[in-house]
Specification:
Radius of gyration: 21 Å
Number of helices: 2
Largest sheet: 8 strands, antiparallel, barrel
Shape: elongated
Number of strands: 13
Distance between the termini: 40 Å
Length: 184
């Protein structure tokens, strides 16, 4: 009877942990990872880059779980201090030092990762759809790439202006991302 209980417990533990088998944690490889933000204005198109961000999550053959992307708001830079200041002001960087994206579970089908995520910008959170490309780079490395169109006013962000209001940025921005990730 004791042996039966022992084997039953082992079986229960094995069944309970089966979904976790094959799950590997993800960590970013900074060299080769980037986030670029592009948009328009009444004068010219513009581009900025987020230079400080972190990506964590777990991956297995058919899903990504517990994904979190954390971007330091003040790391978004164009190389032009006036534009950087306007961006940080519009994103309320002093009050909200991070932009976050969280997804409990995303589905992997072939080379596509898709599902719903929560994106928080300037303290406002919205559910968005994710549709990214997954590439196996070998040596326990993968890349995830894609883009998102974001309407700034949907997050309570007023598009920045300059030159006494004569230069106005467009309300829609495009975020292009490429994350090189190590499976641990």
């Amino acid at each position: 009877m004791r042996t039966l209980k022992k084997h039953s417990m082992i079986l229960l533990v094995a069944l309970a942990t089966a979904p976790l088998l094959g799950m590997q944690s993800l960590s970013p490889v900074k060299d080769g990872s980037e986030i670029k933000i592009t948009g328009t204005s009444s004068l010219h198109d513009w581009e900025e880059e987020a230079t400080s961000f972190d990506v964590t999550g777990d991956i297995q053959a058919d899903k990504v779980a517990n994904l979190q992307i954390l971007i330091q708001t003040k790391s978004i830079k164009s190389g032009k201090s006036i534009m950087d200041d306007k961006t940080h002001e519009a994103l309320k960087a002093n009050k909200y030092p991070h932009i976050t994206l969280k997804a409990e579970s995303l589905v992997i089908k072939g080379t596509t990762i898709s599902g719903q995520a929560q994106l928080q910008i300037a303290g406002k959170t919205k559910t968005i759809s994710i549709n990214s490309k997954l590439t196996d780079l070998g040596d326990n490395l993968v890349s995830v790439s894609g883009s998102l169109d974001i309407i700034m006013s949907e997050y309570g962000v007023d598009p920045p202006t300059a030159m006494f209001g004569t230069m106005v940025t467009g309300d829609k921005v495009n975020v292009q991302y490429l994350f090189k990730l190590k499976k641990n």
